[in-house]
Specification:
Layout lengths: L1 H51 L3 H6 L1 H15 L8 H10 L8 H15 L6 H18 L4 H20 L2 H10 L8 H19 L18 H39 L6 H17 L8 H8 L8 H14 L7 H15 L7 H10 L1
Helix pairs in contact: 1-5, 1-6, 1-7, 1-9, 3-5, 3-11, 5-6, 6-7, 7-8, 7-9, 8-9, 10-11, 10-13, 10-14, 11-13, 12-14, 13-14, 14-15
Length: 363
């Protein structure tokens, strides 16, 4: 009986020790990720505001050069910083036990600031996740943690970076755990991810980060089964639109990569070609689809008017931007595409435009 009691107490002590260990480690991961993401977002905000003061004609004229500069920085100093960020972290977790070289962090930050301030159609959440996970990986190396623990630290870092962008600690924790394992929840890292998310949230708040906090102006009446059927129809539409977005990204990447390989061009030429295409698109559709598009998402959710094919234009602009090698994330463009599509289509089914925009953004 005494042996059973001792074994029970030993198990409880081990569990308590593990809990305290990850309470400390995840807090540290959240702090460093929050600092890194907060600084990046602050610099990005200043850069976007400064670029907005430059005459439009000059911004369009230098757009291809901006793309080339972003591509050159990545190819020259940290090729692992290429892409929208999240996929690089997934690769690091699954293939390198969470090892992310520290140079990836400043290179990714610089390339993204150049891309988004210069007019690339992309988001900031993927780079933030990569910055947070890169700093968490370096912290794990500094503390000489095991490969398994470093992997957990990186998972904390990706969720903390996501939280710093949107101010959603719970959502960031679930995102960091789910995105790495195709929708599966690993409960052994859920608690550390939550702690890291809340730590990053508090730290990023001190930088005065602006969070996406739109108010949906419309309401949903109790429509019963007809409303449920309408929601299903919208869900099918949004699913097809998401599929089209994925296919457009992959097709754009194959196209630009094929051009560069066929003519043996330097890597930096690829985003320059994308910049030329963006200038051509902007001359036809307008410049409102360049940049992150946060203002459009907020206005749409508030019930503002939307151009009928805004979602298709944004899809095309983003596919060209990311497919040609510019640096940026995909989630803000997804929010733009979903909210504008919902705002346009929902009224056809008798649903308030702002409600449709919210449904589309989430879907």
């Amino acid at each position: 009986m005494a042996g059973v009691r001792r074994r029970f107490l030993l198990e409880e002590a081990v569990l308590l020790g593990s809990l305290l260990k990850w309470l400390v480690l995840s807090t540290l991961a959240g702090i460093v990720a929050g600092i890194g993401a907060g600084l990046f977002l602050k610099i990005l905000g200043y850069s976007v505001d400064y670029a907005a003061k430059v005459p439009l004609i000059w911004r369009l004229a230098v757009l291809p050069l901006i793309g080339g500069l972003s591509g050159w920085v990545i190819s020259r100093f940290a090729p692992q910083a290429a892409g929208h960020g999240t996929e690089a972290v997934i690769t690091a977790v699954h293939e390198r036990n969470g090892h992310i070289p520290l140079p990836v962090v400043p290179v990714k930050a610089l390339a993204t600031v150049v891309s988004l301030a210069g007019g690339g159609s992309a988001g900031k959440e993927g780079p933030c996740a990569q910055i947070g996970s890169g700093l968490a990986s370096s912290l794990a190396n500094l503390l000489r943690l095991s490969p398994v623990d470093r992997r957990r630290m990186v998972i904390c870092g990706i969720g903390a970076g996501f939280t710093a962008v949107f101010g959603t600690p719970l959502g960031g924790a679930i995102f960091g755990v789910e995105v790495l394992f195709g929708g599966a929840l690993l409960y052994d890292v859920l608690f550390p991810s939550l702690v890291a998310g809340f730590a990053a949230y508090r730290v990023s708040q001190s930088f005065g980060v602006h969070y996406l906090r739109p108010a949906v102006s419309g309401t949903i009446s109790n429509g019963g089964e007809p409303l449920f059927v309408k929601a299903l129809l919208l869900g099918v539409l949004f699913g097809l639109l998401a599929l089209a977005f994925i296919e457009a990204l992959e097709a754009s990447e194959r196209l630009f990569e094929g051009l560069v390989n066929r003519f043996s061009l330097p890597a930096a030429v690829r985003p320059m070609l994308g910049g030329l295409v963006l200038v051509a698109l902007a001359s036809v559709a307008g410049t409102q689809y360049l940049g992150m598009g946060v203002e459009t998402v907020e206005a749409t959710l508030a019930g503002g008017a939307v151009v009928a094919f805004a979602f298709l234009w944004k899809l095309l602009f983003t596919a060209v931007t990311l497919g040609s090698g510019w640096s940026g994330g995909v989630i803000l463009p997804i929010f733009f595409i979903g909210s504008t599509a919902g705002s346009v289509v929902a009224p056809l089914l008798g649903i308030d435009p702002s409600v449709g925009a919210a449904m589309g953004m989430i879907a």
